[in-house]
Amino acid sequence: MWIYLVVIFSIYFVGLLLLIIGWQRIGQSRKVSSVQPFVSVVVAARNEADTLPALLESLAKQHYDFTNFEVILIDDHSRDRTAEVIAKLMDKYPHLKIGTRQSHGIGKKQALTTAIEIARGEIILTTDADCQVPVNWIKDLIGSFNPGTHMVVGCVRIQADKTFFSKLQAMEFTSVIGIGLAMLGWKLPIMCNGASLAFIRQSFYEVNGYQGNFQIPSGDDEFLMRKILNKYPGSITAVSSFDSVVSTQPLTSIRDFFQQRLRWAGKWKVNDSLLAKGLAFFILLVQLAWLMMLLLFLFRALNY
To answer: Domain span at residue 9?
Structure first.
């Protein structure tokens, strides 16, 4: 048992060191483009009447020429006032180019596909309807594109409140996003988040978009990332500035938390990344090691 613990934690600390180095490598010797091409921000919304106003308010404050981007909101068959709210937001922000349409199918991937079909931008940016984006979000994502770049992965965080449950989610989510960005520092993309993502529209069609993954509830971001990576190795990079962190809200119930995890777990059976699977398995071994240490401590305490 002790040999197992020593081996696991030795690998764990070496892995932490490699992640730190990977984090520091992000953005090194990279040029940041000042070009502002016309881009499309696409958002799939399902029963998001309460959260869309905050997202649109943050998009209306972007430090990016308003003539050079559009916002496309796709209603994924909402049962609340989402359609009504979208109409009011279009009137409230006349300086924004806002387009809207009902999704052609069911689910987020179908809604995003509908949005991309009518998008006019050469670069597509995705975020979620329950998010808020910082003022330099578009500028920093677009500025991170260089010749040969097909996808830019942004930063996302959970905006925790005073509850322990929200703080726990924020810590867990930060570790996931941090690992993904650090691995990008080693040019080994393993995960990303659709709440802050940018990719070349033409590349989306060249890899057939979300075809083959429509039946899986989650994973629109990661499946697309792997498709682009397979076709264009070395073409995925992290955002050049970590100041542009998209904020999302924590879940408020244990039930929603576990349902979200079940959706996330649903994509693993079709995950073809050996690196991602190996990392997930090693994390399981580390958790088992912590559990074993706790049991050893309790055993010694009871027999003291």
So the answer is: 1-30+275-304
